[in-house]
């Protein structure tokens, strides 16, 4: 394969494009222009590599070529000297051939600046997701469209609009000021976790790009964890995703039917991901952010070799804390499940009676489960029938109908 | 998808050049920072290991060292989007050895670790 320059280019491009776009964005201070220049670089490589052969260090070649394009673009704009001054560099001789080297900086910071920009609150959530996948993930518009079950033109429009919004609002491609750092980081983490969950909700028969979103989100999370190793919530999110992803092979039957956590064959959980997840979580000790807490709950499941070994008291306590840190009816629903296990179904029912999630099928399903455990079969059956009527997911409906039928 | 790379080599006499060790550490850090490298470690010479064979329904254990043309010297586990990406990481690793240790010869085996995608039923 090494002899096929186009194939090598395609691979190296996918691996390097985020860093190249990030470096260009810092230089030209515009995400849209940075992406255009990156595409120009790809075209140059496509023309030259098949003739001259693959360069000895393909990644460095691409980066150097891209930076030269950026310098040319800045010159064309006639703002070259101003830009250099803005960057805090001495203004070198305009003909200096080593300009690109003079503009060199840490790539890591570039990536961090770029992800804070693509996840900027001025953008809609779907634009943040699309732009992050495009620029940080290096996914094509077509791949994003397939992953999100929307048309390519829809994704294209989201990305174009996002780039225009960033430019119109003069969003600087910089790390957020300290006063905004917490909120801005939360937005980055939210985007990554949304991508992960989109992949995690993929079902059998879906395009392979959908489950691939999980790996993509994990990759982005791992990159972020290297760039911001002192942020417990970043590590918490990575730990949460590693631990959830560890169950991938066990969470569906060969025919695609979902398998509940307590029924999964835990021998099929991915030990390497569990080990990585627990290691990331261990570095967050003493912090109680929402991702750290969710990861701690996932870790309780990961540590239990059998479902019966699950430390439900600890899980119930963690949900209690999570409900203080980041209250939501969904957290309460999960707390009801945990309390039901830890302190008995009657206590779980007390909680769920105060959960207000209209139209959410898991509420009657959990209530049905708790009622069944209390021996109140007729009421339980009624709840499962309600859950089956509410859900729009065919496999879930089958599951609820089976529970209802078993209670006759 | 996940790949295991096994590095096998015939090393020239003497310790590896410090520049090579430094470059390997830098590349490992880069692969980790890219979210690709999940795990890696060096492997001690086969003298420290053993082999367990089953031949003709008989199980036998043999302590190392083993006379081989090449020693297996390290492993790495990558999570990447394609086989080509795993090959690219392995190539970068091998290039360092080529460029920084004269006379070094080796081979990186790139093996796919079976994952959920290998067991998926017909869509």
What does this structure look like?
The complex is a heterodimer of chains A (408) and B (123). Chain A is mainly alpha-helical. Among the domains of chain A are: 5-89, Orthogonal Bundle (Rna Polymerase Sigma Factor, Chain: A); 107-207, Orthogonal Bundle (Arc Repressor Mutant, subunit A), CATH 1.10.10; 229-251 and 266-307. Helix content of chain A is 69%, strand content 0%. Chain A has helices spanning 5-28, 31-52, 58-76, 80-86, 99-102, 107-118, 125-135, 141-148, 152-168, 178-200, 209-227, 232-245, 271-282, 290-303, 312-325, 329-343, 345-352, 362-373, 377-390, 394-406. In chain A, helix 7 crosses helix 10 (178-200) and helix 10 runs antiparallel to helix 11. The model of chain B has no long low-confidence stretch (mean pLDDT 92). With 123 residues, chain B is an alpha+beta fold. Chain B has a four-stranded antiparallel β-sheet. In chain B, strands 3-4 form a two-stranded antiparallel sheet.
Q: How does the SSE layout of this entry go?
A:
The complex is a heterodimer of chains A (408) and B (123).
Chain A (H helix, E strand, L loop, with lengths): L4 H24 L2 H22 L5 H19 L3 H7 L12 H4 L4 H12 L6 H11 L5 H8 L3 H17 L9 H23 L8 H19 L4 H14 L25 H12 L7 H14 L8 H14 L3 H15 L1 H8 L9 H12 L3 H14 L3 H13 L2
Helix pairs in contact in A: 1-2, 1-3, 1-6, 2-3, 7-9, 7-10, 8-9, 8-11, 10-11, 10-12, 11-12, 12-13, 12-14, 13-14, 14-15, 15-16, 16-17, 16-18, 17-18, 18-19, 19-20
Chain B lengths: L1 E9 L7 H16 L3 E6 L7 E6 L2 E6 L7 E9 L3 H18 L4 E9 L2 H4 L4
Antiparallel strand pairs in B: 1-5, 1-6, 2-5, 3-4
In total, the number of strands of chain A is 0
Structural class of chain A: mainly alpha
Average per-residue pLDDT of chain B, rounded, comes to 92
Biggest sheet details of chain B: 4 strands, antiparallel
Number of domains of chain B: 1
- The CATH level-2 architecture of one domain in chain A is identified as Orthogonal Bundle
- Largest contact between protein chains? A-B, 33 and 25 residues
* Shape by Cα distribution of chain A: elongated
Structural class of chain B: alpha+beta
Low-pLDDT sequence parts of chain A = 91-102
What is the rounded distance between the termini of chain A?
A: 62 Å
What is the quaternary state of this protein? heterodimer
Instruction: Supply the CATH superfamily name of chain B.
Output: Dimeric alpha+beta barrel
Number of helices of chain A: 20
Q: What is the CATH-assigned architecture of chain B?
A: 2-Layer Sandwich
Major sheet of chain A: none
Q: For the residues shown, what is the average pLDDT of chain A?
A: 90
Q: What fraction strand of chain B?
A: 35-45%
The helix/strand order of chain A is HHHHHHHHHHHHHHHHHHHH
Q: Which percent range fits the helix content of chain B?
A: 25-40%
